[in-house]
């Protein structure tokens, strides 16, 4: 085990291989196989653009050759910050073909987050769009480079779209053109090790900036395949990617990877609006999609208009945050589809309700583990297992759950038990059937519609506002988002408003979704007996 990438003990690795969970095939090789087995089938659809499996395989070669021309090779980390465009998939597989490591970033990340990801991962390149959602990512990268200074790891910025008047920027189209003859593509001696680092995902982050989650070819492929088996994916599957492609939920639960490994078709939605999605459902015959709870009422309301043909849609997954029972019961009839609740984490364990589960389980639980070799413990504060039905912290280990965060040796000593169980921080109840009901969290983060907001990170920036002398960020229940963030602030004068605070945190380099939804001025922050801010008391006072 290394500090950079902790791994499974050899005895467990051997058991997972013997069970067929780990198949010893890299993602680059998997695409090569699919390019032959499903050559003429449509693999990816993005607007009017389509790629067959053979074309996607060839594109991966072209992108890999272009990246190799920049000096990027096996083991190099590359931050990929792209919105829902086919280029995310092309770049991802191009990196895999090289044996390089994509670092998944979210489109809403800004200077602080991207700079942190580059430093922590040692990334040699970033791939960004020119503009997205009226934000200039080229300018963002200029700021990141200036902040990192000379001598750092970052050597290249690749821009999908117009590179603009920026120096030291490579246009993605030019990179592809330079890779039009990938013959003799050499990624080093032999194929990459399937047990090696394949990608880095982002943790939700509970004490500041996100940690990096190392995923191997073997474990991440099994993550996608196990979910695909639960969802009964095959060559007839048409998956609509509505949520950001960089999300683990969208990419591998079963998502993009699970669909491609089943020989199905991935359709990319440029935005999550029901009008956009329903148009694609009609046009492409979509059979499966995945949503977060905040989207559910918008989708049910639009479906009620009766102006859409959604007959092809068979399954709608909902995850990222807990779905209310009322919404779970209304969504299926509204869309004419089977609802599937999904509860999991980028660190590993994925739980799904089954397609043949009774409605009561589908509507009231967040599913059961995808793999028979997922190990789950529900424990009390002392680490002792609690009886079924009793709330406790979820601990887990298994064939696709990490054994340690990337380059985080000190944190790993507390995030994992001595025998390798990951302490999730989620409080759950387990039913005799194995289904889990999510009760809450013990970690200090806010889950706003699937976006994890680390309170400490936002509080740190709130305290840099000249009008604020103390601050505490608290999650409160919200019908639309599941939770929303309320900043309790102590100010000598009048507290700044939400717009002013939002502008301030953006200036500090935080993503816009981390800005507090509401500001509440208080004379003092209550403290617990050990001198910590009593956020439970603040939440109770707010509820009154």
UniProtKB/TrEMBL annotation:
<dbReference type="InterPro" id="IPR025110">
    <property type="entry name" value="AMP-bd_C"/>
</dbReference>
<dbReference type="Pfam" id="PF13193">
    <property type="entry name" value="AMP-binding_C"/>
</dbReference>
<keyword id="KW-0436">Ligase</keyword>
<dbReference type="GO" id="GO:0005524">
    <property type="term" value="F:ATP binding"/>
</dbReference>
<dbReference type="InterPro" id="IPR050237">
    <property type="entry name" value="ATP-dep_AMP-bd_enzyme"/>
</dbReference>
<dbReference type="InterPro" id="IPR020845">
    <property type="entry name" value="AMP-binding_CS"/>
</dbReference>
<feature type="domain" description="AMP-binding enzyme C-terminal">
    <location>
        <begin position="457"/>
        <end position="532"/>
    </location>
</feature>
<keyword id="KW-0067">ATP-binding</keyword>
<feature type="domain" description="AMP-dependent synthetase/ligase">
    <location>
        <begin position="33"/>
        <end position="406"/>
    </location>
</feature>
<dbReference type="GO" id="GO:0016878">
    <property type="term" value="F:acid-thiol ligase activity"/>
</dbReference>
<protein>
    <submittedName>
        <fullName>(2,3-dihydroxybenzoyl)adenylate synthase</fullName>
    </submittedName>
</protein>
<dbReference type="Pfam" id="PF00501">
    <property type="entry name" value="AMP-binding"/>
</dbReference>
<keyword id="KW-0547">Nucleotide-binding</keyword>
<dbReference type="InterPro" id="IPR045851">
    <property type="entry name" value="AMP-bd_C_sf"/>
</dbReference>
<dbReference type="InterPro" id="IPR000873">
    <property type="entry name" value="AMP-dep_synth/lig_dom"/>
</dbReference>
């Amino acid at each position: 085990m290394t500090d950079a990438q902790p791994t499974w003990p050899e005895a467990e690795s051997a058991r997972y291989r013997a069970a067929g969970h780990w198949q010893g095939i890299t993602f680059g090789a998997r695409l090569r196989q699919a390019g032959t087995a499903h050559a003429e089938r449509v693999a990816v659809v993005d607007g009017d653009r389509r790629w067959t499996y053979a074309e996607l395989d060839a594109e991966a070669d072209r992108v890999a050759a272009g990246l190799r021309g920049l000096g990027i090779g096996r083991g190099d980390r590359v931050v990929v910050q792209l919105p829902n465009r086919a280029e995310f998939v092309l770049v991802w597989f191009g990196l895999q073909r090289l044996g390089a490591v994509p670092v998944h970033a979210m489109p809403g990340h800004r200077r602080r987050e991207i700079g942190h990801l580059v430093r922590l991962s040692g990334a040699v390149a970033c791939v960004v769009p020119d503009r997205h959602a009226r934000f200039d990512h080229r300018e963002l990268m200029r700021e990141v480079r200036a902040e990192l200074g000379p001598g750092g790891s970052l050597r290249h910025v690749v821009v999908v779209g117009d590179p603009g008047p920026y120096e030291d920027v490579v246009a993605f189209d030019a990179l592809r053109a330079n890779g039009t003859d990938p013959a003799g593509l050499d990624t080093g001696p032999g194929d990459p090790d399937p047990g090696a680092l394949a990608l880095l995902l982002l943790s939700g982050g509970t004490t500041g900036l996100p940690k990096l989650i190392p995923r191997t070819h073997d474990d991440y492929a099994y993550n996608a395949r196990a979910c695909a088996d639960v969802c009964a994916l095959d060559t007839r599957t048409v998956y609509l990617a509505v949520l950001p492609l960089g999300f683990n939920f969208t990419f591998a639960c079963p998502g993009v990877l699970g669909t491609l490994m089943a020989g199905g078709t991935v359709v990319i939605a440029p935005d999550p609006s029901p009008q956009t999605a329903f148009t694609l459902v009609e046009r492409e015959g979509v059979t499966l999609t995945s949503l977060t709870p905040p989207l559910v009422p918008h989708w049910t309301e639009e479906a009620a208009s009766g102006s859409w043909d959604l007959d092809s849609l068979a399954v709608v997954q909902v995850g990222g945050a807990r779905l209310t029972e009322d919404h779970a019961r209304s969504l299926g009839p509204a869309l004419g589809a089977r609802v599937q609740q999904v509860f999991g984490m980028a660190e590993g364990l994925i739980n799904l309700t089954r397609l043949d589960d009774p409605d009561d389980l589908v509507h009231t639980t967040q599913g059961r583990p995808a793999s028979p070799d997922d190990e789950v413990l529900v424990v009390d504060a002392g680490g002792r297992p609690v009886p079924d039905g009793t709330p406790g912290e979820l601990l887990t280990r298994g064939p696709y759950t990490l054994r340690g965060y990337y380059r985080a040796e000190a944190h790993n000593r507390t995030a994992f038990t001595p025998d390798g169980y990951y302490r999730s921080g989620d409080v759950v109840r387990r039913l005799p059937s194995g289904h889990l009901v999510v009760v809450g969290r013990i970690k200090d983060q806010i889950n706003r519609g699937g976006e994890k907001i680390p309170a400490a990170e936002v509080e740190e920036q709130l305290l840099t506002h000249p009008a604020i002398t103390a601050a505490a960020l608290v999650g409160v229940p919200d019908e639309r988002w599941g939770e929303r963030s309320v900043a309790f602030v102590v100010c000598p004068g009048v507290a700044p408003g939400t717009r002013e605070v939002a502008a301030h945190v953006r200036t500090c380099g935080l993503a816009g979704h981390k800005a507090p939804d509401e500001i509440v001025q208080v004379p003092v922050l209550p403290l617990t007996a050990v001198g910590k801010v009593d956020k439970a008391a603040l939440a109770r006072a707010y509820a009154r």
